Amino acid sequence: MARIMVVEDEPITAADLEQKLSALGHEVVAWSDSGEEAIAQARDLSLDLVLMDIRLRGAMSGIEAARQLRRQSEVPVVFLTAFADQETVDRACLAEPYGYLLKPFSERAIATAVQVALTRAAADHARIERERWVSAGLRSAGEALVAVDQTGAIRFMNEHAEALLDVKAEDVRGMDARTIVRFVEEEGAGDATHPLEAALREGRVTSAARSLQGRGGTAVNVSYSAAPVLSSAGNARAGAVLVFREQLPSQGLDRLSAVNALSMRLSHEINNPLTYNLGALELALREIDQVRARSALEGADASTAEREAQLLRIERLLRDAEEGATRIAGVVRELTSFSLSERDLVALDPVEVLGLAIGMSGVGADDRVRFVRHVDPAPLVRGNRWQLSRVVAYALQNVADALDPQSGVPGLLELRVYADERGWACIRALARGRTGPPSSRDAEKSRGQDVMRPTSVGLAVAQHVVESHGGELELSETAEGRAIELRLPPISHKTARDLAGAAAAPRRADVLVVDDEPMIGRILGIMLQSHYEVTAVHSAEHALALLERGDAFDVILCDLAMPGMTGEELHERLSAGRPEVAARFIFMTGGPTSPRAARFVEAMADRCIEKPFSLDELLPLLAARVRARDAAAGRT
């Protein structure tokens, strides 16, 4: 049911409209016979649609009233008129109406016009909201950004681009971007094609470093990337986007940070499925709109075959959208699995990392691969056990992909752990001998290629993780086969002892686990049983009863979001009466569920751990609380 205003200066016509709209299930919330009165009434009403006569009594026409209503509240308008001459239609179109009804009109015509107008208005509202979000994101982007249409005319420019080019967006909107974003021609610079030209005419994505004619005509060194923007159907170029950033004298494209490289790769991986995801959804919604419009017409009953064909088209489009969403979810899941914090770093034996990686990768789970291992003395390294194991698992998958599955005999995967000439720990995987057909991208000792599974984000993330550990990751294609080698710097025996000590509590302390999920309590009990005495309860109320009874726990490991009393509320109760007990809390969180919870997590950042977490993350936090408890009690 829609809330509708009727603006009509003929009372009989207005009454007839109200009767027909009510019969269709809509509500006429206001009636006016002049444009001025309609605008005044609309300020205090929540309207879904206005049916507006073009010719009204008074000085203001229906066309002018519609313009002002759109500016005031963006409410959609359908025009009513007894005149269908070209001049009237042309003037009415300037107000961007959502429909046009000729008098006299039937209930069927009204039903169709209202349904189409409401459907189109809902789609326009969703599109406008998306555009506002995108525009806000583009304006706040850290790089200068210029977006153009298919002719090269500027459609959008953010503040960073305005500052770098010394122009105002409103002054250059609609102008050819190639006359505003001008690159300095340099002798011997190679391809001097404007990057927007390459994107618009050739559909090429280009990235490079060049000199830009910037503020006051001075040359500014920038790194840039330009890419075409495809239409919703994906078969035509609707425009292009140019992103560029000023380089400091010491910067160069070959020295972009790992985070920047990862961001560009991530944008590519997400934007591709997102493009056909949104396109498929838009087409499916259009099909649904057509079904609704037909249903609103009396007697326009499509055949069963036509309806089935249309439903099949909608199903296929939604399946495409589902595939796109699944790919995006996979990329995000892959990224979150590589989060790194200082608490994760422990002393590791490279042999342990390799063993975990073999299990993660699934390589060797069938008869396709046979392992040969060579383990030589290698130093301990400092790192995150799960991240480094995942990197090596990617390496194993990559190398195993080079083996030829058609030969019928197991492939040979040679694994080696050793120390190189610098004393660094090395893990090397080589698919020896029988490999599949060479890739067109094969290159000896090429670094950073898109060969990792399951997405090309994989290698970029793996490189970032390895660099975060101070190490090196190298892919090579040689006469022997495909190899990947991970090299990590060693740590001293003293550092290894310090890392182990950081996770070890000074004594076997008592830990109270508070979580409404019984499974979490049981798992934590198993994880901590070799270090602590663990008591698990499943509500904050139960925990409060134990603590107020006087039960002494050295650490309270408490979930934040629980039914009834939350972890934050439990902490507040104890802070008021027993602050020394409140100081022993460590909070587990799956993510803040409210602004208040977000502020609490931020305030307790040094005593919070995000689910899911590993034992390596949890033990240092517990040990720190036990030490603080012992210090407060005067124990050493």
Short description:
The chain is of the alpha/beta class and 636 residues long. It is 44% helix and 21% strand.
Describe this structure in words.
By secondary structure, the chain is an alpha/beta fold. 44% of the residues lie in helices and 21% in strands. It contains 21 helices and 22 strands. It has a five-stranded parallel sheet, with helices on both faces. A five-stranded antiparallel sheet has the order 7-6-10-9-8. The chain starts with a strand and ends with a helix.
Record keyword descriptors for this entry.
alpha/beta, 636 residues, five-stranded parallel sheet, 21 helices, 22 strands, extended
How do the strands line up in the largest sheet? 2-1-3-4-5
DSSP strand count: 22
Number of helices: 21
Measured between the Cα atoms of the first and last residue, the distance is 73 Å
Point out poorly predicted stretches.
249-261, 336-343, 435-457
Describe the secondary-structure layout.
Elements: E1 3-7, H1 11-23, E2 27-32, H2 35-42, E3 49-53, H3 62-73, E4 77-81, H4 86-93, E5 99-102, H5 107-139, E6 144-149, E7 154-157, H6 159-165, H7 169-172, H8 177-180, H9 195-201, E8 206-213, E9 219-230, E10 237-246, H10 258-296, H11 304-336, E11 345-348, H12 350-361, E12 369-375, E13 381-384, H13 385-401, E14 411-419, E15 425-432, H14 457-468, E16 472-477, E17 481-488, H15 493-502, E18 510-514, H16 518-528, E19 533-537, H17 540-549, E20 555-559, H18 567-577, H19 579-582, E21 585-589, H20 595-603, E22 608-610, H21 615-633
Parallel strand pairs: 1-2, 1-3, 3-4, 4-5, 12-14, 18-19, 18-20, 20-21, 21-22
Antiparallel strand pairs: 6-7, 6-10, 8-9, 9-10, 11-13, 14-15, 15-17, 16-17
